[in-house]
């Protein structure tokens, strides 16, 4: 049992710290995304000339917001869940079912990790240059020069999946500890900020 807690506690601290940083970045990305969309609407309908980069900039913010907030929502139980069967089963069987579902989720996430790396980051599209997003002040970085390389936005999927895998492993460890009767020793990270559909 001490081995499980020895693995869980550092992973729990890592997830707490990295997800707090991710939340801050995601909220910033959301603010930038909303500002770009509002700016685009204003310039298009009031000034009759919208900048061509605002749509791609908003998409950039949306992708990173999603990639960084999904692991936090997963950890807090913020995803939609149908738990009628789990509630109807005896506690031990329900716990084993939850562990099985977490194992299947880990399998899917490992496949998504490979797809995110090989189908988005390290592809012709990922290595391509953005159509309209440019570095500020004419700075030139990498092979795209002053334009963003596409994998800066596609990396959001891969980073999000990495964080989801870390959270999934933590949830699996917590479930095993709970099944072994030591669930009362676990710290609760359920937040009142996450609303549920009860």
Q: What does the radius of gyration come to?
A: 21 Å
Helix content: 55-70%
Task: Characterize the overall form.
Answer: elongated
Tally of discrete structural domains: 1
Termini distance? 34 Å
* Number of helical segments with 4 or more residues: 6
Q: Which stretches are low in confidence, meaning pLDDT under 50 for 5 or more residues running?
A: 192-198
Spatial sequence of strands, sheet with the most strands: 1-2
The profile of the biggest β sheet is:
2 strands, antiparallel
How do the helices and strands follow one another from N- to C-terminus? HHHHHEEH
Percent of residues in beta strands: under 5%
Average pLDDT over all residues: 84
What is the number of strand segments?
Answer: 2
Which secondary-structure class do the elements indicate? mainly alpha
Please outline what is shown here.
By secondary structure, this protein is mainly alpha-helical. The protein has one domain (2-185).
Task: Based on the model shown, name its key terms.
198 residues; mainly alpha; two-stranded antiparallel ribbon; 69% helix; elongated; disordered C terminus
């Amino acid at each position: 049992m001490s081995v499980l807690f020895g693995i869980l506690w550092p992973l729990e601290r890592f997830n707490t710290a990295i997800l707090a940083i991710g939340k801050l970045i995601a909220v910033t990305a959301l603010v930038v995304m909303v500002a770009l969309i509002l700016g685009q609407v204003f310039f298009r309908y009031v000034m009759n000339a919208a900048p061509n980069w605002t749509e791609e900039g908003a998409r950039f913010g949306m992708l990173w917001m999603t990639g960084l907030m999904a692991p936090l929502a997963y950890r807090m139980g913020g995803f939609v869940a149908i738990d009628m069967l789990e509630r109807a089963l005896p506690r031990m069987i329900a716990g084993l079912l939850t562990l099985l579902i977490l194992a299947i989720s880990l399998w899917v996430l490992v496949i998504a990790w490979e797809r995110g790396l090989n189908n988005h980051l390290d592809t012709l599209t990922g290595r391509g240059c953005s159509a309209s997003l440019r570095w500020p002040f004419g700075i030139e970085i990498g092979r795209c020069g002053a334009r963003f390389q596409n994998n800066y936005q596609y990396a959001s999927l891969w980073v999000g999946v990495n964080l989801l895998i870390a959270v999934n492993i933590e949830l699996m460890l917590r479930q095993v500890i709970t099944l072994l009767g030591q669930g009362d020793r676990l710290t609760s990270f359920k937040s009142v900020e996450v609303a549920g559909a009860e």
